[in-house]
Design brief:
With 644 residues, the chain is α/β, with parallel strands linked by helices. It is built from 18 helices and 16 strands.
Length: 644
């Protein structure tokens, strides 16, 4: 056996043989974002050798670079590695400070955290997997295909200038920008679709009142190439002893970029939100001041998660990023530096500009960059908040219509190949600066359509390119602009990264392309990993019926968000569910169920006998019934994977 054959044999059996020149992996993940970390960890836990490539010197993307307030509206809709991540965050604060400490309260069960803590958790999750080899500060240069299949990625070590070829069985693009899919020649979208293209109400050019959610004059629904504003998500501190204070404005500082905020303040646009939601962590002292240009929330250790508030008409960050998605990294660095300086300029303006009321300046000076965060980057976040860039054109395109309750169901559209649940409201930053005649909101700004968006299925097909094999795309996935504004959150991306890696593992195991993976087997594997496939309002993760209800939620068993698992299953429902689960093979069993009313235990034993299933333990008494949850659990346990 030669060296190449030995390496291949090791890879096929899940073993790893790394050396300084190792370049063969089962799975290559490009992008150390939370989605990429989830993919790498999942793949390694399945016994696969993994290359994890990241452009920056750190893992964790936005979650480790300032995004300290987790964007989750419906916690029960997100599971898997995301729940493990927040659990580890909470454990960190409990272990470090004790369960009664204020920091444990401020971490809100692990959903709020300091960037450095998030990075430690991500690093620990990766370090626990010796099958993962990390390539930090590596830049993707090109991808190699053999026919339709991607077989290698060429990366460059940005520190040493060395180029490496990473060969793999399956590749996962977990970059915010969709760089690997573009390098592999996969088709992608950029910008906004028109209303007509996917029949989306909020698509295209839109002006919307963010208080009333009503459309404003100028809304046309026309598509274009504009992308939502990029910003930096800051971490600031209130602790003077931990403060890195700005002593000069950034290069190119121009106060005229920020004076629009003064007009916003005088017009009353910095008043508190009219609808204050519980649990969001608003930092109320800034309401009614110019400092409300920053949206703040308390996180542990006297720090704040700080977003750029997109409501003011003086918001200066739009139109600065149009070139970024398709640009090379030299150009991207220039754009990132410009937005960094624009951000530092805003902080300087709030703290020092003489036209700002003195008490507002005094308030702004209480917030500074923490000395114990981002020490290798001048205490400033290293990851630009790339809210949207390229988006894959995949086997299915998720649209606004998948995120809302339609006329035929009491829940969103059912997808039989769902691999995760989405839950965050449609929410998109503006795309244009203030325009004459538009005095309510900036164009493209859609604020948190939480009553309109409902928890939804995310189909596996949105990660599968139409024409490139060997590639899955869980981050820059196949969606419209409007749908992307919902899935573009780190918890959802972690769920999709977990799904992509599980699919990659199954593709390698079964020696098929990712598009050919048996979805039923994939879903069952994801459920074993704690993934949520279908959101329900009335089931508990501890229920023995949980996995079955999740699974059959993707097969159309339930018409709304209630499983009613403890209620008796009716005969009509039993016949319907057997048909949905087994197709034409259900006829003998369905025919054994006569009339209306609830299914009896005797009938259930007859069904089990006809199907040659073990008789359910719950069917031991002749006149007792069987619950909807028990029925689903029995189906789930006895139907072979791939038979439905």
């Amino acid at each position: 056996m030669n060296a190449c054959q030995k390496t291949l044999a090791l890879l096929l059996c899940g073993a790893v043989a790394f050396s300084a020149s190792a370049a063969e992996f089962d799975i290559v993940v490009v992008g150390g974002t939370p989605g990429g970390v989830a993919a790498a960890v999942t793949a390694a836990r399945h016994g696969r050798s993994v290359a994890l490539v990241e452009y920056h010197a750190h893992l964790g993307g936005m979650a480790a670079s300032g995004l300290g307030k987790s964007d989750v509206e419906t916690k029960e809709a997100i599971g898997g590695l995301w729940r493990e991540f927040v659990g580890r965050v909470r454990d960190h604060y409990v272990r470090t400070y004790g369960p009664a400490h204020e920091n444990v309260k401020l971490c809100r069960d692990g959903y709020y955290y300091e960037p450095s803590v998030a990075e430690k958790v991500f690093d620990a999750m990766v370090a626990e997997q010796p099958r993962i080899r990390i390539f930090k500060r590596h830049q993707l240069e090109a991808a190699t295909r053999d026919g339709l299949r991607i077989v290698a990625a060429r990366v460059m070590d940005r520190t040493l200038g060395i180029k490496r070829e990473l060969r793999g069985g399956v590749f996962i693009d977990a970059t915010y920008e969709g760089d690997l899919l573009a390098a592999a020649g996969a088709a992608y979208r950029l910008g906004r679709e028109s209303r007509a293209e996917f029949n989306e109400l909020h698509a295209g050019v839109v002006y919307q009142d963010y208080e009333t959610r009503t459309f404003l004059p100028g809304t046309t629904g026309e598509g274009d190439k504009r992308v939502p504003a990029y910003t930096y998500r800051l971490c600031l501190t209130k602790d003077p002893a931990n403060s890195h204070v700005l002593t000069a404005p950034p290069p190119g500082y121009d106060r005229s970029r920020y004076v629009g905020y003064l007009a916003d303040w005088r017009a009353g646009r910095f008043a508190p939100p009219k609808q204050m939601k519980e649990g969001i962590g608003y930092y109320a002292p800034t309401f009614g001041t110019v400092v409300r240009a920053l949206s703040m929330a308390d996180i542990p250790n006297g720090k704040l998660d700080v977003n750029m508030n997109p409501r003011p008409l003086g918001f200066p960050f739009t139109e600065e990023n149009y070139e970024y998605p398709d640009a090379d990294w030299a150009k991207r660095e220039q754009i990132s530096e410009r937005i960094r300086n624009l951000t530092l300029g805003l902080v300087w303006f709030l703290q020092n500009d003489p036209e700002i009321p003195a008490e507002h300046r005094q308030l702004a000076r209480q917030f500074n960059f923490p000395k114990d965060e981002f020490a290798d980057n001048r205490h400033f976040p290293w990851q630009l908040y790339v809210r949207e860039a390229r988006r894959l054109i995949g086997e299915y395109t998720l649209s606004e219509n998948d995120l809302i309750v339609g006329p035929a169901l009491g829940r969103t559209r059912v997808h039989a190949d769902s691999v995760a649940a989405g839950e965050y409201p449609i929410d998109s930053f503006p795309v244009r600066k203030r325009e004459p005649g538009h005095d309510v909101a900036l164009e493209g700004y859609i604020l948190m359509l939480e009553k309109y968006t409902q928890p939804y299925h995310i189909p596996y097909r949105i990660m599968v390119p139409k024409e490139v094999d060997g590639l899955l795309v869980p981050v820059a996935a196949s969606t419209t602009h409007i749908a992307f504004s919902s899935i573009r959150l780190e918890p959802t991306w972690m769920a999709l990264g977990q799904a992509a890696a599980t699919a990659a593992h199954l593709a390698l195991r079964d020696r098929v392309q990712p598009r050919q993976v048996a979805v039923q087997g994939l879903q069952r594997a994801l459920l074993q990993g704690g993934q949520v496939l279908t959101f329900f309002k009335d089931i508990d993760r501890a229920s023995p019926d949980y996995a079955a209800l999740q699974y059959f939620g993707t097969k159309g068993f339930f018409r709304d968000y209630h499983a009613h698992a403890q209620q008796p299953v009716s005969r009509p429902t039993a016949r319907e569910w057997l048909g949905l689960a087994l197709g034409t093979r259900a006829a003998p069993m369905a025919n054994a169920i006569k009339g209306e009313g609830n299914l009896t235990a005797a009938e259930w034993r007859e069904i089990a006998s006809l199907a040659k299933w073990p008789v359910p333990a719950s069917a031991g008494v002749a006149d007792s019934g069987i619950t909807r949850g028990e029925f689903c659990r029995a189906l789930f346990a006895n139907i072979p994977v791939g038979s439905h």
